[in-house]
Every structure is written in structure tokens, then in C-alpha cells.
Amino acid sequence: MSSHKRKCPVPFDQQPLNEYNSLKQSILFKYSTLKSREFISRLGLFFLFLVIIFLFVSKFLENTKSISIMTMVYSILFSLLSLDMLLFRLYLGWSYVLKRLFSASIFYEESGWYDGQLWIKSVDVLTQDRLVGLYQVKPIVDKLRRLLLVVSSLIITVIVWLYLLR
């Protein structure tokens, strides 16, 4: 690590490989590194949790004894929107790291926004970063993109269904 530190003037937290490692270990982003089946099952549990929460909130706001079909549909819609926002946040974080891993030059700040520098990666650092990006981060970004497409199409379907019910 010390030899890499001498070659790279970029601060430790702004180096793309270290950004990848910190993102991989963060609470919000670590679940997206799971295999697709496990990740989708956790998203499904999160979705069900949100539906139940929204149903309870709407039941207390409406102050009725039963829950209507429209209340259930709106709870599903809000849960899908919340899930879509979560997936979008995950997608933005991982795609940012992927862009920095694939880039041949890195913009970094030494002590603040006013003293930005540009560092050109050496061939070995660029190769290592691109391999990590290609085999570790790109599959995550592709998985998140597909899930975003599915959840967004479900949102559109629910909205169209609500429009047709009126």
C-alpha cells in the first residue's frame, strides 16, 4: 500500500478502488452486492414492509374499520415509488464508482473545492481499476438497471390501472 501511496497523489478516500471498497461495506449499498436472488428477496421483504406501514398509516388517517381496495392500491403505489427511489440511489452510487474506475484520469480535491487537481492513472492502476469495474461493479449496475426498469414499469402499470378505475 505504501508504494501505491507514493505513486498516487489522490487522497485515500477519493481513490476509486477505495471508494468501491467503502461503498461495498456501507449499510445501504452492501445488499446490492448479494446475488440477484438474495437481493430481490430482500427487496421483496422491504416492499412488503413498506406496504404494511403505508396501510397502517392510511388506516389511522382515514379512521375507518376496514381498508378499501383503493387504499391498498395507493399503498402499493407508494411502496413501489419508495422502492424505485432506493434503487435509483443505489444505481447512482454504483454508476459513479464505475465511471471513476473506468476513467483514465481522476479529478480530486486536496483540501477543498478550490484546489482541484487531475491525476492520470498509471497503466497498472488503470488496468486494476478497470478489471474491478468490469467484473465487480458493472454486474451490480446492470442488475440495478434491470430492477429499475421492472419497478418503473410496475409503477406505470399501477398508475394506468388507477386511471382506468376512475
Automatic annotation (TrEMBL):
<dbReference type="InterPro" id="IPR009631">
    <property type="entry name" value="CGLD27-like"/>
</dbReference>
<feature type="transmembrane region" description="Helical">
    <location>
        <begin position="39"/>
        <end position="61"/>
    </location>
</feature>
<feature type="transmembrane region" description="Helical">
    <location>
        <begin position="147"/>
        <end position="164"/>
    </location>
</feature>
<keyword id="KW-0472">Membrane</keyword>
<keyword id="KW-1133">Transmembrane helix</keyword>
<keyword id="KW-0150">Chloroplast</keyword>
<feature type="transmembrane region" description="Helical">
    <location>
        <begin position="67"/>
        <end position="92"/>
    </location>
</feature>
<protein>
    <submittedName>
        <fullName>Uncharacterized protein</fullName>
    </submittedName>
</protein>
<dbReference type="Pfam" id="PF06799">
    <property type="entry name" value="CGLD27-like"/>
</dbReference>
<keyword id="KW-0934">Plastid</keyword>
<dbReference type="GO" id="GO:0009536">
    <property type="term" value="C:plastid"/>
</dbReference>
<keyword id="KW-0812">Transmembrane</keyword>
